[in-house]
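User: Fold this; tokens only.

Assistant: Input:
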Amino acid sequence: MNISNGHDINILDLPDELLRAIFNKLSTIDIFYSLVNINERFNQLVFDPLYIYHLNFSEEQSDISNSSMSTDILDRIFSTILPRISAKIEKLTSSPFFMKSIGSKFILTNQKHLMELSQISLKNTNVRILSSTLTKLKIDVNTLNECLFLLDHRLPCLLTLNICIDKIRRSLSMMDNTEKVIKLKCFSLTTNSSITSSNVTSFRGGRIFDTVRTLLMRDTRPFEQPLFKIICQDFPFLNKLIIINNHQVQENKQSHSLELLTFRRLFTLNLVNAHNDYAIQFLSDKTHLPCLKELLIGYETLVTITDNFTNDVIRSKCAHLRGLFAPGLTIGSKNFDSYFPSL
């Protein structure tokens, strides 16, 4: 070991395992900017395929973003470092800072190799994703049109799509998107504004979600009743539905509230983080669930909507359940066992 005095140790004397542990404490930009081309050993560690297959730029980059050198740093990374490893990158996790600087250029240049993109903001950019390899995409967009542009033949291998939209507004432009994302299995749509029936009808026209098996519905504002009619029609093969919404269902006076909704293949329903109204919507006679076998729901909600396990309408659905997860359940009431005879 190279010891110049009684206390100093050369970092190059450390084993690779310890150097990797040190590198893992640094951000991706710090590693690329500070360690590449220092020496051959550092290059081998930094460009290890097990490390670079997933580039994560989501860490806070406050020191760099506030520096006058930020543009030079990122330009160097994009022009001299990323081209050396682009063919080995399969996953990219971005950040607003990265997208604003070189992220869009990198995606446009290298998307043919990528299999997963996360935290990608397409707001105020001209990026159009075209990939025959991408299987998972998590993006932020401004408008519904930007979302619909993705749902065409440009992403033939996409399996999972998570979209966060700032505001869903009825578009003034007419979009006739009837293409299908053939392999899509999981779809999540989140918005910071309310979702109304007039907004969501923008998806209608081609049943583009007929391969989706899992759907997560999450919002900070209440869903309207007509939305569920659209969901059951446009997601005909849905077998798992998760609702996260603690606000009352919004009734639409113009809707036909007595119309029966049918989710023909829904196997699992998760209402653990949903208002009681959604449990009533799905477990009462308002909705037909012929294949429902698994229910996840808060125990207090279950007690309330079943009138302490005496409601015969909801009993008909619960009688066929094979699985029940009810947080808060301790000892069931005397009617509990008879209410769930198939458990």
